Amino acid sequence: MSDETTHPQRHPRSRSHNGTKPTNRPPKLLNPLHKGIQDYLTHHLPPATLTKYNLDDTLLASLPKRFTVYEPLLLLPVNALSSPPSWSALYTDLTPAQRETLFACIVQAFSRSGVTHVAINAPIALTDAQGQENRMRSPAGLVPLYGDFGPMGSDNGLGEEQQPTEEDLKRAFWVRTMQNHGIVQIWAPLYTMFSRGNVTEKARILGAGSGFEGLDDTAGMSVVDMYAGIGYFVFSYLKRGVKRVWGWEINGWSVEGLRRGCEVNGWGCRVVRTRGNGELEGGLRVGEMVDTLREEDRVVVFHGDNRFAADILARVREVMETRGEWCPVRHVNLGLLPSSAAAWENACRMVDAQKGGWMHVHENADVQRIEEMKDEITAEIGRLREQVLGVEAAVANCRHVERVKTYAPGVMHCVFDVKVPSLDEV
């Protein structure tokens, strides 16, 4: 939920002091962010301090106006405390106790929104502090300002080898938001990213918008999400009615967010840990895992590297087919930026050979090369599908390119909807 201003109250008509007809435009009320700051400046700082930093009545008009509330978190933009210069100078000189009072005033101004915590947002880095790929997509730039955000271990527990413990998960600060027909998503903001910009892609899966084909007979199909996260697209597939989503996710914080989200939305979720060699953790056999699956377990998320996704799912399919419980995989979602190319071969192996299906390939594309990139992706997926089926001329077909949002200047987050052929179609 984003808020910028509150609605002004109506005032009765009156005459101005010079007898002219009033404009009937009462002054706008301050948005909660500005109100909290004004309350602090008015009641907690002496006039001499305001004079020292040249803070006058024009300050509030020049402060950043945007903010986001993810209950119960108030997320401020990265420039909230650094612009304009006079405000930045004052904030820099505040003591820790004074800053605590400032944020307490801001939280009080947001009391109707249930806010208890404050943080500053920053873009998700593609690399970690050591220059390695940030495969966990951890929000290392998030700066907590007010409230207890949970355990702060080394590297915030963000490394792949530093998965959260059960105690970490219990102590962490969790937030939520609601999007797309009442779907609730939950995450721990200190450890997991949330992208509001994916809302349009979620809507496409739900049936709003163009280009998302092949989701008419959802009750008889399964979907694979190779980068399940906190359930960005998983929940939309479930809301659309697919029988089950098989997901892979390497970040333990995201897995827990997905599990909690499933619970609050009313979907059963089974979490299965995998080891570095692709085997199920604890010596669990695939047959034993299938034995314990419940009908209401609409999501099975494998907590581990998706390099072994096709091998694991092939074993699951073999067991479930013998029992008449298997629903063929018709869609594979590949939602990793800047590129999901490393998972394309696995995806081609998982799309049902007899029925064919779809791969939804998320990529960062140069805006000048989107059509060229579409041809390259389609050709490569066709080549991989030929290898999987053991045939020639397995022509893939990109049926739609969805331009989701601008990722950077000249770079567009695109989703390429690629139709993957079946054996009969070949």
Topology, please?
Elements: H1 32-44, H2 47-52, H3 59-62, E1 68-70, E2 73-76, H4 85-93, H5 96-109, E3 117-120, E4 143-146, H6 166-171, E5 175-179, E6 183-187, H7 199-206, E7 222-225, H8 234-240, E8 244-249, H9 252-265, E9 268-273, H10 286-291, E10 297-303, H11 309-322, E11 329-334, H12 344-350, E12 357-366, H13 370-389, E13 397-408, E14 411-420
Parallel strand pairs: 2-3, 7-8, 7-11, 8-10, 9-10, 11-12
Antiparallel strand pairs: 1-2, 3-4, 5-6, 12-14, 13-14
Helix pairs in contact: 1-5, 7-8, 11-12, 12-13
Protein name: tRNA wybutosine-synthesizing protein 2
Domain SAM-dependent methyltransferase TRM5/TYW2-type: 110-422
Catalytic activity: 4-demethylwyosine(37) in tRNA(Phe) + S-adenosyl-L-methionine = 4-demethyl-7-[(3S)-3-amino-3-carboxypropyl]wyosine(37) in tRNA(Phe) + S-methyl-5'-thioadenosine + H(+)
